[in-house]
Amino acid sequence: MDKTPGKVHTVSLDSEVCGETFEIQYYLPKSYSDLYKYNVIITFDSQDFFKYGQIERLIEKMERDGELDRTIIVGIPYPSVDWRNHYFSPNGEQHEKFVTFVGRELNAFIDSNFKTLKMANSRLLMGESLAGSFALSVALTYPNTFSQALAFSPFVDDAFMERFKNSMSLINLNIYHTIGLEEDNFKTIMGKQADFLTPNRELNELLEDEPLEYTYRELEGGHIWKTWKPELKNVLMHFFG
């Protein structure tokens, strides 16, 4: 397995749970050494976190400036828009199996191939839109494995909201949740008009009264990386600064 630091690598991972092979991306900082143990950021929609969020450049700069603990990035890219709907969407037919894949198989792959801290609070799940909903799903299902999650503008409906109500997992979680103020009427990647602002505000009202560590931010802007990218540094400082 290629561990050349400072590069985005791609590897295939077979899943027994899903009966499929998935593409995984990973990035080791230029200072990576097997002598140290690392926090892990797991990104869903990983190609967008690299291309539009430029997250690898950010962790390099923050580490150089002494603002970030040692951290590696592992991610799952999406091969198509349809695929996101089947696997990342809370209503997708492959969603539950894929949550299990991340909680069991992907996590085992990461810990067996990299020097990691292997604690729930040393792992951070990240996603935007449907991938943000997926990050929250994984944290709710495996709170003792992944206690930290970032969701930029997640898809929220009544059924997804029900998952949070009376959840015994919440007490273990640290969630960072954002929504854009221009997301009350926009066109999704599927070409449909949507209002994400209203249901995300409802989710915020629900979570504010629950026993978890919770940060909620309403950002200037819409359902795009121009809104999310400037918030990434605040997120990394919050969890691993």
Summarize the structure in words:
It contains 9 helices and 10 strands. With 241 residues, the chain is of the alpha/beta class. β6, α6 (158-164) and β7 (174-180) form a beta-alpha-beta unit. The strands form 2 sheets. An 8-stranded mixed sheet has the order 1-2-4-3-5-6-7-10, sandwiched between helices. It has one domain (8-240): Rossmann fold (3-Layer(aba) Sandwich). The chain is globular. Helix content is 36%, strand content 24%.
N to C succession of SSEs: EEEHHEHHEHEHEEEHEHH
- Rounded to the nearest angstrom, the radius of gyration is 17 Å
State the end-to-end distance.
29 Å
Low-pLDDT sequence parts: none
**Main sheet overview:** 8 strands, mixed
The CATH C-level name is Alpha Beta
What is the percent of helical residues? 25-40%
What is the total number of structural domains?
Answer: 1
Share of β-strand residues:
15-25%
Which structural category fits the helices and strands?
A: alpha/beta
- Spatial ordering of strands, largest sheet: 1-2-4-3-5-6-7-10
CATH topology: Rossmann fold
- Please tell me what the overall shape is: globular
**What is the residue-averaged pLDDT?**
96
Tell me briefly what this model is.
The chain has 241 residues and is of the alpha/beta class. Helix content is 36%, strand content 24%.
